[in-house]
Q: What sequence folds into this?
C-alpha cells in the first residue's frame, strides 16, 4: 500500500529554472493539497484540489501552478524558481468524508541557488 | 476562517515527566481538530483527531487530547514522556463539513531530556 508518493525526494535548482514536483496517491482520495514547510512557519497551504479538474489557491500560491487531470495525480509546478522557494514541500490527500485526516507524503526538499 | 495557535515553539521535558502541548483554535463553526507528529526528515503522521463523539480523545503512543469548547482549546498530553517522543507536533483544524484543507499551527518542537 503506497499511500501518497512524492518525487523527487531532493532537488537543487538554479534561480529561474522550472520544475515539477510529482505527487500520486493510490487511495482514491478526492482531496489533495500541497504545503510548504519552513522553520518556524509550520505548514502553509499552496494549492489544493477537491476533485479532478478543480483546483484552488491556498495561502501562498504565488510562483506555483497546479492541475488535476486525474484523481491520482496532483503535480506542483514551479515556473521560475527563486531562492525564496527553498523549502520542504509536502503533498497530502484525504477523502471527502466528514472528519477524515490527511495522509502525507515523505516530502521533497528543494533548494534554489 | 479557521486557524490554530500553538503556544510555545519549543517545549523541553525530562524523561518520565508530563508532556503538555497547547493548541487553541479559532473557528466560527464547529471545528474538526487534529494532532500530527513529525519525526526528523519524515512526513506527518496522525496522532489523534477530534470527532465530536467524545471530548477526550485517545491517540497513538499514549497521547491524548481534550476538546474544551469554553476555552477553544485542544491541548495534547502524555502522562510520561519517553525519549522516542522527541519530534515536532502540529495542531490542525478544518471546517465542519470537511470540504476545506487542513490549516496547521506553526508547530511545537518537543525535546526529551534523559
A:
Amino acid at each position: 500500500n503506497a499511500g501518497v508518493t512524492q518525487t523527487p525526494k531532493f532537488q537543487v535548482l538554479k534561480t529561474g529554472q522550472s520544475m515539477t514536483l510529482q505527487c500520486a496517491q493510490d487511495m482514491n482520495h478526492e482531496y489533495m493539497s500541497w504545503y510548504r514547510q519552513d522553520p518556524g512557519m509550520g505548514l502553509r497551504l499552496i494549492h489544493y484540489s477537491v476533485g479532478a479538474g478543480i483546483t484552488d489557491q491556498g495561502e501562498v500560491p504565488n510562483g506555483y501552478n497546479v492541475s488535476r487531470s486525474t484523481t491520482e495525480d496532483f503535480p506542483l509546478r514551479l515556473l521560475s524558481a527563486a531562492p525564496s522557494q527553498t523549502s520542504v514541500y509536502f503533498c497530502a490527500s484525504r477523502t471527502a468524508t466528514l472528519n477524515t485526516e490527511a495522509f502525507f507524503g515523505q516530502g521533497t526538499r528543494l533548494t534554489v541557488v | 476562517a479557521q486557524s490554530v495557535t500553538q503556544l510555545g515553539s519549543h517545549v523541553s521535558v525530562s524523561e518520565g515527566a508530563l508532556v503538555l502541548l497547547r493548541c487553541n483554535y479559532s473557528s466560527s463553526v464547529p471545528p474538526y481538530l487534529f494532532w500530527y507528529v513529525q519525526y526528523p526528515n519524515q512526513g506527518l503522521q496522525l496522532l489523534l483527531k477530534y470527532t465530536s463523539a467524545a471530548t477526550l480523545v485517545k491517540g497513538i503512543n499514549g497521547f491524548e487530547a481534550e476538546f474544551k469548547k469554553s476555552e477553544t482549546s485542544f491541548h495534547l498530553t502524555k502522562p510520561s514522556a519517553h525519549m522516542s517522543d522527541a519530534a515536532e507536533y502540529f495542531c490542525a483544524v478544518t471546517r465542519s463539513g470537511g470540504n476545506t484543507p487542513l490549516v496547521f499551527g506553526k508547530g511545537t518542537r518537543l525535546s526529551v531530556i534523559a
Summary: The CA atoms of residues 47 and 61 of chain B lie 8 Å apart. Chain B has a mean pLDDT of 91.
